[in-house]
Amino acid sequence: MTATPPLPSDPSTPPPPPASAGSAAIRVQNISKSFGDNKALDDVSFDVPTGSIFGLLGPNGAGKTTLFSIAAGFLRADAGQLRVLDIDIDHVYQLQGRMTILPQDASFQKNVPLLEQLMFFRRLEGSDPAKAKQEVLEALEKVGLAEYQQRGVHALSHGMLKRLGIAQAFLGDPEVILLDEPTAGLDPQNARQIRDLVLDLQKSKNVTTVVSSHNLAEIQELCDHVAILDHGKVRACGPVEEITRSSLMIELTTSRPLLPADCAAIMDIAGITAIDDRGPTRYTTRLSLPENRSADEVLNEVLRTLMDRDVTPRGVSQGNSLEEFFLSVTGSNSTDSVVDE
Length: 341
Fold this sequence. Notes:
Layout lengths: L23 E12 L2 E12 L3 E5 L6 H8 L7 E6 L2 E2 L10 E4 L11 H11 L4 H14 L15 H12 L6 E5 L7 H18 L2 E5 L3 H7 L2 E6 L2 E7 H4 L4 E7 L5 H8 L4 E8 L2 E6 L7 H14 L4 E8 L1 H9 L11
Parallel strand pairs: 3-8, 3-9, 6-7, 7-8
Antiparallel strand pairs: 1-2, 1-4, 4-5, 9-10, 11-13, 11-14, 12-13
């Protein structure tokens, strides 16, 4: 199931006012955590801007799940401080109703109607029955599950279960939402639906959402900021557009396979650093631009070179690649290693 932060038996401190616009919704300061001899997090620091959709990426064992668990109050850091909405996570009970978490392995009671389950969670957060029912019905409508409100989760597909988890995470008025692998195991169509849901709910709720995902293309499409962890350390953090500025690429589809001489001619173009074969007639060229050249100039020269060699470009696109940047800062050989740990 999704989770709200754990509460003590008698929380006496009143909740503080909402975080101010432009501040950091989450502030991670010099966080370290070890499990025996394994240092899962090593002096990790970064800010999650208020109102952002923030992506958390890293290879296997990078420390993402450990960091999520500390932010949720499920684990205690060995050193450092983590603040959510300017509240030290040691006082996580003050975040009741203000922060929600969707774990990767979220589950629900099999034989309890969806309406009753979600109403129960809202009642735990202090909502009265009438308001809780209205909020749940609206949430189920938004995620396309209104017709299943009186049915149990046994009637739902895997994709529907993911939507149910998203509905619960966005219930009420949370200011911070943590989503751990929200599209894991979904086919492309269902994954697209989940991404669209997150974007739509983000706009309507104006919350700060942190998404952990192994899908680099998904993070680049969904998130405006990103942090990359590797071996427990932050390798990069900032707006996606800024940190990928140095990782330009051109995708090409050609009328015939490129010969070694064709590839050599492209590599002679100033600014081209590599050309990768992605299929019989599909190629990716990577760029590192000199100060006196633009990406458009390099693209035009690539196209002229191809035409001069009797190769017709049948598809061309250019952009910044989070995948290329990720591989460059982590030293990974394959994005297959990018799983959430």
